[in-house]
């Protein structure tokens, strides 16, 4: 069995002071008059958020709160992997791995853990290259390699069978784990799923109005919202220099996606996600110097021939949780790659459901895995 070590977050006072000094010394430009968010994060908004990060946000309180969770670190395939491991007191609890997406870290699930702790043994890692699992020690950390590492992690913790949940890029990792180990993964729960259509015109026949709207959002994402991915998948090192040198720049790079991918009826990011949690995530990326390696994960997948769609259809029972204002997932396209046995629509929320709608998120996760446990053979693909 690999070495699993207890881990406590300890950020030095000097590191906190340096962050505050850099934030206070940020050089600011000016917006084009009359322009809002359509060109990116407005200066006025970012100045206010940076001001709170440097002057009102209490990292010490956040660190203390995070350290109340049992945390560990282990080495897998030459890379540190940091994770929370919280066992349930209930007999027969289901082991459940929760996989965050980009932008994000294990902090993404902190609001929902108390609502899942009764039914699940919870394992919440930082993806390799992110937060306290990074920076990366070498190239080649694709979705498939991360999936293998997390399969190793669950085995190292003694879990022969378990469920997996993932959102956004974490959904790809979760689904890949089901493809690679269908004898161990009892079910996969996904949110923030992207389901590109096929080239067959007939595949678009009979779409509902909601599905047409989602395809429209997907087309808009590719034409007007995919610049971050184009840069991260081609020149992440160039971007990385800026992210590692400027905390205000790092925050702007991720908070723009938080606003774009959270509930469309939320005017500002903190209207969808608690501001202190937003800044806790930004602080972790800054203190661990992992914003660059987190961005580079897109490069790895873009240059991995195994990531070319369509992928083999996953055989394990799969649930998709979709929202009304932000999602781009269409069930008929999801069915091509996933054995979808549960599809849930909720009105509010976006791609960060564990933070935006923790109660609805937890309820759907609990209900799905209860159904899987009740009829495992009937739900298999």
Order of strands, main sheet, comes to 1-2-3-5-4-6-7-8-9
Distance between the termini: 32 Å
Indicate the radius of gyration in whole angstroms. Answer: 20 Å
CATH architecture descriptor text: 3-Layer(aba) Sandwich
Uncertain segments of ≥5 residues (pLDDT<50)?
Answer: none
What fraction, in percent, of the residue positions are helical? 40-55%
**CATH level-3 fold name:** Rossmann fold
| Percent strand | 5-15%
Number of structural units classed as domains: 1
Query: Quick one: CATH superfamily?
Result: Alpha/Beta hydrolase fold, catalytic domain
Structural class: alpha/beta
Number of strands: 9
**What's the mean pLDDT score?**
94
Describe the structure in your own words.
The protein has one domain: Rossmann fold (3-Layer(aba) Sandwich), CATH 3.40.50.1820. The chain is 45% helix and 15% strand. It has 17 helices and nine strands. The protein has helices at residues 13-24, 43-55, 59-66, 113-116, 143-156, 169-180, 209-224, 227-232, 236-245, 247-261, 269-272, 275-288, 291-302, 331-337, 353-356, 358-374, 376-379; strands spanning 4-6, 71-76, 79-86, 94-99, 120-125, 162-167, 185-191, 317-323, 339-346. Strand 6, helix 6 (169-180) and strand 7 (185-191) form a beta-alpha-beta unit. Helix 1 packs antiparallel against helix 2, helix 5 crosses helix 6 and helix 10 crosses helix 12 (275-288). The model has no long low-confidence stretch (mean pLDDT 94).
């Amino acid at each position: 069995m690999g070495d699993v070590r207890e881990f406590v977050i300890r950020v030095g006072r000097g590191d906190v002071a340096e962050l505050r000094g850099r934030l206070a010394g940020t050089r600011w430009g000016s917006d084009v008059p009359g322009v809002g968010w359509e060109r990116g994060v407005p200066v006025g908004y970012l100045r206010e958020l940076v001001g709170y990060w440097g002057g009102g946000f209490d990292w010490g309180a956040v660190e203390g709160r995070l350290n109340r969770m049992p945390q560990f670190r282990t080495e897998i395939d030459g890379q540190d992997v940091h994770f929370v491991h919280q066992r349930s007191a209930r007999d027969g609890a289901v082991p459940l791995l929760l996989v965050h997406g980009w932008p994000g870290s294990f902090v993404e699930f902190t609001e929902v853990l108390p609502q899942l702790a009764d039914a699940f043994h919870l394992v919440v890692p930082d993806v390799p290259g992110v937060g306290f699992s990074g920076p990366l020690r070498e190239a080649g950390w694709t979705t498939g390699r991360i999936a293998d590492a997390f399969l190793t992690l669950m085995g190292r913790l003694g879990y022969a069978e378990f469920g997996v949940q993932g959102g956004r890029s974490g959904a790809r990792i979760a689904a890949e784990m089901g493809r690679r180990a269908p004898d161990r993964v009892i079910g996969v729960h996904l949110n923030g799923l992207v389901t590109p259509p096929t080239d067959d015109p007939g595949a678009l026949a009979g779409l509902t109005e909601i599905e047409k709207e989602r395809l429209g959002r997907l087309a808009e994402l590719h034409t007007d919202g995919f610049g971050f991915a184009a840069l991260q998948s081609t020149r992440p090192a160039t971007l990385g220099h800026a992210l590692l040198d400027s905390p205000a720049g790092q925050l702007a790079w991720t908070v723009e996606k938080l606003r774009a991918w959270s509930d469309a009826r939320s005017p500002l990011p903190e209207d969808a996600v608690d501001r202190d949690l937003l800044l806790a995530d930004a602080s972790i990326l800054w203190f661990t110097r992992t914003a660059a390696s987190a961005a580079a994960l897109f490069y790895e997948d873009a240059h991995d021939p195994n990531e070319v769609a369509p992928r083999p259809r996953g055989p394990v029972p799969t649930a998709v949780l979709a929202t009304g204002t932000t999602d781009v997932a269409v069930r008929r396209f999801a069915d091509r790659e996933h054995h979808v046995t549960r599809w849930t629509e909720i009105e509010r929320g976006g791609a960060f459901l564990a933070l935006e709608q923790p109660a609805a998120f937890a309820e759907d996760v609990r209900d799905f895995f209860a159904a899987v446990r009740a009829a495992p053979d009937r739900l298999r693909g």
